[in-house]
Design brief:
Elements: H1 2-12, H2 18-40, H3 47-50, H4 54-57, E1 70-77, E2 82-83, H5 85-88, H6 107-111, H7 116-127, H8 153-157, E3 173-183, E4 188-195, H9 202-215, E5 219-222, H10 226-235, H11 239-244, E6 248-250, H12 253-256, H13 261-267, H14 286-314, H15 322-371, H16 381-411
Parallel strand pairs: 1-5, 5-6
Antiparallel strand pairs: 1-3, 2-3, 3-4
Helix pairs in contact: 1-2, 7-10, 13-15, 15-16
């Protein structure tokens, strides 16, 4: 085929470079592929996504519906980098090839969602209640110069979610990697370049939009920081569609253990009804994956059934409510979080009292020096001015510390 294409190209126009010949070869092969797809009936919109995995998408007649229509996972990878020519110098050789596959999400499609995080933060700020969830991504971080990326307890524990202000390296890359979604068996569903950034929220948002457009309702996805991403998704322009189509997510089994306990109870894949044995880590080899999962499922059903039978036989009066136990554990941890907030106010109050005492002591010393000005006529105008300035500053600082203490006392109702 290559020899034939090169011959055809030479007949039309002698190649000026090897790159030109390669480009011509790719274009001709692409034309052949499109014509073949049309003959086979594979040219409809999103045909490749809808037929990417026989195990996921082949439906039997009268097949019982599952809890979720498709299970998938998404993640970014920064191994496919392209250094920005403005950094390395030299002449850039532009790649004029354009991907024609509909699973490739181009830059214009992605950038439609570039402001979703800002919009979601504004939405949450309007509806924010006093009680703070320990995983709340809307806590202001004064040390972060990039307010476009949220910060959570889980974000601090998992590097992929760290604000872009902590990822200085990405500034030198024109393309820093790729972001993909795959089905539970590892077949590619969507792919896009991460351009001049790390793993920003716009990439999973755009990928979720594509999944909803193609597969419709009851999709379950796995994402390393699903706990933070879900809150942004529901406050974004896709929020209503995600709720209507029952778009749900989980944190993958391995990465989930880097999240705090409350987050694991709410988001970990092992607690999700309908997730089955999937770990959502995208490491499966299809040849053995389905068989091994089938054997594991049969073993799990057998051992669990035996255990529950023995448990009920030895405890006939007990009626365990496993879902209720999980809910109670979540409520208990949420109460602990609220108690922690209350105790932190008390600690801050004690610190404020200590700072007030220091300010009061400095104020008293400044007052003594200020009162001795008339007794020391040998003070120069500069020295006298310094004493007056220190006295003024001490008064101001003491008054500020008093206001802080009073504010904490009002919060704790100590003035009642």
């Amino acid at each position: 085929m290559d020899a034939l294409l090169n011959y055809m190209h030479d007949l039309l126009e002698p190649p000026s470079s090897v790159d030109e010949t390669d480009q011509f070869t790719i274009e001709v092969v692409d034309i052949f592929d499109h014509r073949l797809d049309k003959v086979l009936g594979h040219d409809s919109d999103n045909w490749r996504m809808l037929n990417s995995c026989p195990a996921c998408q082949y439906k039997l007649t009268d097949e019982p519906p599952l809890e979720f229509s498709i299970l998938c996972a998404c993640d970014g990878n920064n191994s496919a980098k392209l250094v920005d020519p403005a950094i390395c110098g030299g002449q850039e050789h532009l790649d004029t090839q354009i991907g024609t596959s509909l699973i490739w999400l181009n830059e214009s499609y992605i950038d439609v969602f570039k402001d979703e995080v800002h919009s979601a933060r504004a939405c949450q700020a309007r509806d924010q209640c006093p009680a703070q969830d320990p995983d709340d991504p809307w806590v202001d971080e004064p040390d972060s110069v990039d307010s476009a990326e949220p910060r959570t307890v889980c974000v601090d524990c998992w590097r992929n979610a760290t604000p872009e202000s902590q990822k200085k390296m990405f500034a030198i890359f024109k393309k820093s990697g790729i972001f993909i979604t795959v089905c539970r068996h590892g077949f590619l569903l969507t792919i896009c370049d991460m351009v001049q950034s790390g793993e920003l929220m716009k990439y999973p948002i755009a990928s979720v939009k594509k999944l909803m457009d193609v597969f419709g309702s009851n999709i379950l996805y796995g994402y390393d920081i699903k706990c933070a991403f879900e809150k942004i998704l529901l406050c974004s322009t896709l929020g209503d569609s995600a709720k209507r189509l029952n778009m749900q997510g989980v944190v993958p089994a391995f990465h989930g253990h880097t999240h705090n306990h409350l987050c694991q109870l709410q988001h970990h894949s092992k607690h999700k009804l309908g997730a089955g044995l999937e770990d959502f880590e995208m490491y499966a080899a299809l040849s053995d994956f389905i068989f091994n999962n089938y054997v594991q499922a049969l073993t799990s059903i057998s051992t669990t059934t035996t255990f529950l039978g023995n448990f009920h036989a030895s405890n006939p009066t007990l009626d365990p409510d496993f879902n209720g136990d999980l809910e109670e554990e979540c409520l208990f941890l949420q109460c602990l979080a609220r108690k922690k907030d209350e105790s932190s106010v008390e600690i801050d109050y004690v610190k404020a009292l200590n700072k007030y005492e220091e300010a009061q002591l400095a104020y008293e010393q400044a007052c003594i020096q200020f009162g001795q000005l008339d007794l020391r006529p040998n003070y120069s105008p500069k020295d006298a001015g310094n004493v007056q300035q220190r006295h003024t500053q001490a008064v101001t600082k003491r008054d500020q510390k008093v206001d802080v203490v009073i504010d904490y006392e009002q919060q704790m109702a100590l003035d009642a």
